[in-house]
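Q: Start with the shorter request: fold the first protein.
A: Done. Sequence, then structure:
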Amino acid sequence: MAVEPSTIAATKTAAETRPLRADAQRNRDRLIEVAASVFAERGIDASLEEIARRAGVGIGTLYRHFPTREHLVEVVYRREVEGLCAAAGELAAKHPSDVALEEWMRRFVDYIATKRGLATSLRILLTTNSTLFSDTSGRVSQALRQLVEAAVADGTIRGDVDASDVLHALGGIYSAPDTPEWRDRSRRLVKLLMDGLRFGAGKSVKA
């Protein structure tokens, strides 16, 4: 069912500008965290009732924070993007550049799993919230670019790599069949991709 743009905008304003008590904020944060997991697991079949139950709150509490399914989806999607982008800097600070890149791509698999689960509602949001994807898509690309360029610069991956090519390869994970072993297979593909990126590192690689 389509949601009017004014409805999403109104609920977003109400939920995000009204101050919350500490216990209410904890409930909201818990609902967002659980929703990301349930959407990743259940996809289109994820129910708001299950999300509320797993979060340990009543369905009324969920609706007070997120009056529509699409509003919850938008908040979860933005949280996933923010977490993925923040991880780039955190990983780069803790690991060698190629290890940071590989770990980030493994996290990208988890991000894609959640995004696949949100797909139906995201398509609705695409028609009602024109800024959502323009706000977020460039941030993911930039996070990956920083990691790739750092690994190229210190010679831990091959020097003829462009971040857009890596992102294109990772995009294939999204379109793979949604089977029970999808996540494990996707992580194996990340490992294969990293093996290819590391091959010839520090040397001239012929096309």
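Q: Next, the second protein, separately.
A: Sequence, then structure:
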Amino acid sequence: MMRISMLLILMIFLSSCNNKPEDHLEHINGYWGIEKVEFTKDSVRDFKINEIVDYIEIVDSVGFRIKVKPQFDGTYIPAGEPEDIQVKIEDEKVALYYSTPFNEWKEIIVASKEDELSLKNERGFIYHYKRYKPLKLDLDEKENE
């Protein structure tokens, strides 16, 4: 019985060690609405409504992020210029290096799940995102008379 318990503990430990930093990229592509920003543990700004959301697309460690404005018909209008992204693994963490013609900066992926994303910038601010659910109103629907 002791051997089985030790074997089970060893298997759990080894399976938890299999989480690679690259696993954070599994769910990153798509539309993200900001939920809150943690400036410090005691200073948090909540966002109730997202008029602008981020669209992220990364393939083979290269991609882009662009701010877009959701429309009522489920489409999006660009609300800024794309930011190029280069993904690098540093100290067992995933770093996203952004660049535009005017600036360069870095963010670290703190957490990444199917519906949640947290990024920490170089100033230590943590941006918490939720997967954005698109608006879809049927504007062509006619009332029954």
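Q: Describe the second briefly.
A: The chain has one domain: 23-131. The CA atoms of residues 11 and 17 lie 10 Å apart.
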